[in-house]
Design a protein that fits this description.
The complex is a heterodimer. By secondary structure, chain A is α/β, with parallel strands linked by helices. Chain A folds into 2 domains: 212 residues, P-loop containing nucleotide triphosphate hydrolases (Rossmann fold, 3-Layer(aba) Sandwich), CATH 3.40.50.300; 63 residues, 2-Layer Sandwich (Alpha-Beta Plaits). Chain A has 11 helices and 14 strands. In chain A, the strands form 3 sheets. Chain A has a 6-stranded mixed β-sheet, sandwiched between helices. A 4-stranded antiparallel β-sheet of chain A has the order 2-1-4-5, with helices on one face. In chain A, a hairpin with a 2-residue loop joins β1 and β2. Chain B is mainly alpha-helical. Chain B has one domain. In chain B, 86% of the residues lie in helices and 0% in strands. The chains are: A alpha/beta, B mainly alpha. At the A-B interface, α2 and α3 of A face α1 and α4 of B.
Chain lengths: 288, 214
């Protein structure tokens, strides 16, 4: 299957944080969600993909070409949505559009106007006068108005109310009607991904924990609840993370089939949500 | 790169209105020679364009556009030239209009050499400012620029002291050499000096900017 993004063994070290040996493949034609707790390395990974930070090791290929060597050609085909506002705040929406449009060979003014109307973003308002949700919609309108093949978004739904978030997810779903298009977006709001993502990549403390399709994730991971007497050295190894209280335990397993057989009818086996997976992986085997 | 230069001008739209008013007022009153007036305008444009970029942390935005880092830096230097040309051009138009209509006898009109002086002074200011800005950020560079401004204010006294006390022979010789050099040759030297400094600064800025993380 063709990949829109391929990261191989990328490392980047800062003082106090390091992205370690990250390999990631984003499949063309699908939505890949990138999850991880705050500070786990999502933004740094996205900045490596966008060539905004200089990686210490590894390679990033987009549409099969090295981003470091073909930056301009590749970025013509990328729509990037930032985690916060980096547009010129004193300009109006219309002025900002005039500034951006000449950079893109395939800029579509009609498309942009359609999105502004659909999102109800006022053209004459200054960027600084827009609400956070409006700024995000404007950013999305820009990203979608030059016929980009790949949309990369860094925490687009963070800080937005549920109505705005749902609207943005619907827009992405519409965008994906064209099978040539790909979306890669990071979030720590896992419910967003449960609605629309085809693939999930999970990063924690600068390391990639897994990347897989959503169905496989549901098949492998499960939440098991039962009396703590069921736990011993042998059974504990089937858990990614455990929460043990006086009343019993609750734990996440990454080997649902085996764990179900092992605990049989003695424990309750439930489907794990992305939030469960993120929580228990982050917590590890901490006891509460 | 044209789009990047145009970006600076779009950001400076309101400042350009001030430039017109300032240029007209200063050209009519002439408290300073035309080259000085126009140079101040050019420096102001550099600082103001930088202020917009820094205030909005625009490196993130610019580097997500389909442009290379080298183009971003190169466009800055192209903008300096455009700022210099714009400021001396505006002065020239106003001063020629003044000459045509109401100029008094001692009115100083913008001459061809003013174009060389202003463009050079603006380019040299940018050439000093930008590598430092890319390396250390705006806050430190503005302090350094204030220091330079202070130095500029006291430089007349320093030069006078140097001429009369310390290096009378050497500086006197330099001054004599300058006086014996024709204006076109002097301007040629200035233009060549500006080109060399700008090229070195551009190269240095490019190297610094290529290594930056956003």
């Amino acid at each position: 299957m063709e990949h829109a993004i391929q990261m191989q063994h990328v490392s980047k070290r800062y003082s106090g944080f390091a992205l370690q040996d990250i390999s990631l493949s984003v499949k063309k034609g699908f939505i890949t969600g990138f999850i991880g707790p705050n500070g786990s390395g999502k933004s740094t990974t996205i900045r490596c993909i966008m060539n905004l930070v200089r990686k210490d090791a590894g390679s990033v290929h987009i549409f099969g070409r090295d981003i470091a060597r073909h930056e301009r050609e590749i970025k013509q085909r990328i729509g990037f949505v930032y985690d916060e506002n980096y547009f010129y705040e004193d300009l109006t929406v219309a002025e900002m559009k005039k500034l951006i449009a000449p950079f893109y060979e395939r800029w579509d003014d009609g498309q942009f106007r359609t999105y502004l109307e659909q999102f109800e973003v006022p053209e004459r308002k200054k960027i600084k006068e827009l609400s956070k949700g409006m700024k995000m919609k404007f950013s999305l309108a820009v990203a979608l108005s030059h016929h980009a093949d790949l949309i990369i978004m860094d925490e687009p739904t963070s800080g937005l109310d549920p109505v705005f978030r749902r609207e943005i997810l619907n827009i992405l779903r519409d965008f994906l009607q064209d099978e040539e298009k790909t979306v890669f977006f990071s979030t720590h709001i896992t419910t967003d991904l449960e609605q629309i993502a085809d693939y999930i990549a999970f990063i924690y403390k600068g390391r990639m924990v897994f990347q897989t399709d959503k169905e496989s994730l549901a098949e492998s991971y499960g939440l098991i609840k039962g009396p703590k007497e069921l736990l011993d050295g042998d059974t504990k190894k089937y858990f990614v993370g455990l929460r043990v209280t006086d009343n019993g335990f609750e734990g996440l397993t990454g080997d649902l089939a085996t764990a179900s057989r092992l605990f049989g009818g003695e424990a309750l086996v439930e489907k794990a949500t992305l939030e469960d997976i993120m929580y228990y992986t982050a917590r590890g085997n901490d006891r509460v | 790169m044209y789009s990047l230069v145009m970006k600076d001008f779009r950001l400076l739209k309101k400042t350009l209105l001030f430039v017109v008013i300032y240029t007209v007022a200063m050209t009519i009153m002439q408290p300073l020679p035309p080259a000085a007036t126009a140079s101040i305008v050019g420096w102001l444009l550099i600082l103001n364009a930088n202020h917009f970029d820094e205030k909005n942390r625009s490196d993130m935005f610019l580097n997500s556009l389909p442009v290379s880092r080298k183009q971003i830096v190169s466009a800055k230097y192209a903008s300096f030239f455009a700022f210099g040309l714009l400021s001396v051009g505006a002065s020239a138009i106003v001063s020629w209009a003044m000459l045509w209509f109401v100029a008094p006898d001692d009115f100083q009109v913008v001459q061809w050499q003013d174009f060389v002086i202003v463009i050079s002074s603006v380019m040299l200011a940018g050439a000093v400012f930008y590598p430092l800005y890319y390396k250390f950020g705006g806050q430190y560079v503005r302090i350094a620029m204030l220091g330079l401004l202070f130095l500029g204010m006291i430089s007349a006294n320093i030069i006078q002291w140097l001429v009369t006390q310390r290096f009378a022979g050497t500086i006197g010789g330099v001054l004599q050499l300058l006086q014996s050099t024709s204006l076109p040759v002097m301007m040629l030297y200035l233009a060549a000096f500006t080109c060399i400094v700008t090229l070195l600064s551009w190269k240095l800025s490019t190297v610094i900017y290529q290594k930056k993380d956003f």
